Every structure is written in C-alpha cells, then in structure tokens.
Amino acid sequence: MKKQQQKKKKAASHTSGSLSAGQVRDVNSREVFKDPILCAQFLRDYTGISLLENVQPEDIEDVSEKYHAYLGITFEADTVKKIRLKHKDTENIPLYMISLIEHKSDVDYNISMQLLKYMACIWHDYGKEMEKTAGSSAADKNFKYPPILPIVYYEGANEWTAGLHLKDRIMLSDVFGEYLPDFTYRLVRLHDYTNRELLNKGDEMSLLMTLNKAQTPGDISTLWENIQKDDINKIILNTPAPTLEIIVSVAWNLLMKLNVPIDEAKEYTKKIKERQMGYLFENMEKMDIQKERQKTEQQRKRADMQQHRADMQQQRADMQQQRADMQQQRADEQQQRAEKAEKELEEKNEQGIRTIISLCRKLQATKETAVTQVMENSALSNVEARGKVDLYWEEN
To answer: Which of 31, 184, 307, 321 would you label with 4, given CA atoms 20 to 30 Å apart?
Structure first.
C-alpha cells in the first residue's frame, strides 16, 4: 500500500455519466467504505462480531479526515469510523473502526504499524475529548479507552502473507514480548469467499465485492453460473441513488477492463440505473469478450498503421516544403546580390561621369566638350550626357 495518495488518472475525475473509454471514473474501496450503507453491510456481514450484527448506516460516523489531520498522512484507501453500539450494556461506549484496504497483489507487511499509529491517535484524542466534555481524566483509576476494531480488506488474488500481530514486526519479541504492545487485526480477504457465499448475503456491498472479483472473461463466465437475474435485480431494487452510482461506476470499470464496446457498455450501465442489473450478466454470458478484445486490438493496430502512414506522408510533405523554402531563400539571396551589384555599378558609373565633368570644368573646357567626353566614356546618348552635364556642372 502506498503511504501517500497518488494523483489519479485524468479519467478518474469523471462520473460514469460521461461513459467514454478515456473518461472512466475509478472508484476505490475508500469511496466504497465512505458510503454508510455499504459500510454498515460490511460490518454486519464480514467482521464476525455479534455486537455489529444489527448496525445501521445512521449508527456510523466517518471521522477519517480528523485523524488524517492529526497524523499528517493519508494512506491510499484508509477510513476511520466511529460507531454507536446499541446493546444495552454498551450503548454509551463508542467503537472505532480503522479500515485499511490493500488493492494490489503485493502484500504490505507494515500494515500493523500503520494501524497502531491510528489507534494511538484515536485513544489520545479520546482522552483529551473526555477531559474537555465530561471532566474525566485519563489518569483516573476508572477511566477506560474505547475499543478499536482494526480491519484490513484485501482484494488481491495472492495469499496474505503478512503477520497478523504487531509483535511480528518487532525484533526479539519472543524475549521482550511481555513488555511490548501487541494486537491483531481482522483480515477480510475477498478471494476467501466464493461468488455464491458473497451473493447469498443479498446486499449491495457483497454485490460490489463479487464484481471486484471478476477481472477476466473467465471470471465473468464463472460469475454467471452463480447469478440469477431476479436475485440481482432485487438487491438494487431500493438502493439509494448515491450507492447505486457507486455500483454503476464499478460495473463500468469492469466493462472497460474487459474491452466491452462503448455503446454496449453504455446500454448495460443504463440498465443498472434502471435497476435491471440482471440484464448485464444475461447478455455478457452470450458475448465473446475475448473475440471483442482481439477485434479491438486489431482495430487499434490498423489505426496505428494509418496514423503512421499519415505521419510519414506529413513528414515527406514537410521535407518537400523545407526544400522549396530553401530554394526560394537561395533565389532571394541571389536576387539581392544581383541588385546590390547593379546598384554599385550604377553608382560607380555615376561617380565616373561626375569626375569627367569636374575635370572639364577645371580645365576650363566648354559644356559641349564635357558632353562629348561623357558620351565617349559611357554608354549615354547625347541627350542623356547633356542632362548629366547640366546636373553636375554647377556643383564643381
């Protein structure tokens, strides 16, 4: 389990209402456990504690953020619940539940220490709260701390090989055992339950757990063997909208993992919203998902090839344009050099004409003589030569 929440995929920010392949809303177990209905069902069905057999959503208060703030850390999918017990001997005793969820197949061997951090924080806070509100001190003889139920909900397919006791993480615990704190936690491993065992619970939480077990076409085939259409529809018949939305999102994620075509996936999730979830499994039994996956892969490859060809054509066009630009640039440079040379030649000729006229003036020759000299030393006509003499005669 990661110790810091990672940034979710951009797709995770969209609800299933948008339903597109690139916009899948990823619902993790922390969100599931934050739902009071689902959390109450989990406590009733999977803790094995008789005091929680009748716990209801209204008995559960989510206090996760409070302890995240205390600890300054948030694990990927942890929640802290404060539960009101209804038994006559325990009605004034709060029960705290810490749930840590491990999604991956890799086991987190430090979970017991993570749980201990929360437990110490909860007890410390409880002592401060009682001193403030009830005037009782943790130092009093009769003061007692509330019970805490630590739970690890593990969805990985591999076995859970981490020790269930805190002392398993402490060196020389066999020597110093009586001086060391120790506790165990409740491990709820999803794959320890068969589909039939889950679905026999007949509630939304067990339905979600069943969906989370199904990750391959083979899992879907096995799942169908344990599902009756009417039974599934009954489970979500009266499910409140927020809880139903979680079920829709989990089902959508499953459909995307199985590469179900988008249009069909939309139809399936639409039926779930209409509380006809049996339609999903009834039709998935007939669907060759592996074939659809191969078809999708072939389409993807064809699309990649077409894109590659288009990229190559664009690259060739870019190179041709680049060559044309370079040729135009060279032509422009040659034109500029020619114009510059022509201008320089004109200026040189003009300066020569002025020099001839100046020399004739200094030798006291006539204008006619100057015109004759200009014509002999340049390619000007009589009229053009006379114009130059008139232009430059007075400046000398």
So the answer is: 184
- Comparing 370 with 1, the larger pLDDT belongs to 370
Question: Span 236-252, mean pLDDT?
Answer: 91
Q: Kindly report, residue by residue over 24-67, the tens digit of the pLDDT.
A: 445 566 778 889 999 999 999 999 998 898 899 999 999 988 88
Q: Is the Cβ–Cβ distance between 213 and 181 less than 8 Å? A: no
Structural contact between residues 36 and 58, judged by C-beta atoms closer than 8 angstroms? yes
How many Å apart are CA 264 and CA 19, to the nearest integer? 11
Question: What angle do the packed helices 262-273 and 241-257 form, to 10 degrees?
Answer: 160
Quote the CA–CA distance of 255 and 264 in Å, as a whole number. Answer: 9
Sort 49 into a burial class: Cβ within 10 Å, 0-12 / 13-18 / 19+. Answer: middle
Quickly tell me which residue has 């004759």 as its tokens: 372
Q: Which segment of 46-50, 77-81, 382-386 scores lowest on mean pLDDT? A: 77-81
Query: In the chain, what are the helix, strand and coil shares in percent, each to the nearest 5?
Result: 60, 10, 35
Res 74: pLDDT:
57
CB 121 within 8 A of CB 174: no
Closest C-alpha among 15, 51, 80 to residue 269: 15
pLDDT (0 to 100) of residue 286: 56
Cα(162)–Cα(150) distance, rounded to whole angstroms?
A: 15
User: Residue 60 corresponds to which amino acid?
Assistant: I
Instruction: Provide the mean pLDDT of the chain.
Output: 83
Sheet holding 60-62, edge to edge: 60-62, 79-84, 94-102, 148-154, 186-189
Bridge partners (DSSP) of residue 94 are 84
Query: Cα–Cα distance between 114 and 75 in angstroms, integer?
Result: 9
DSSP 310: H
Beta strands in 170-243 (DSSP E): 186-189
70: part of which helix (H) or strand (E)? helix 64-71
The reported pLDDT for the residue numbered 46 is 94
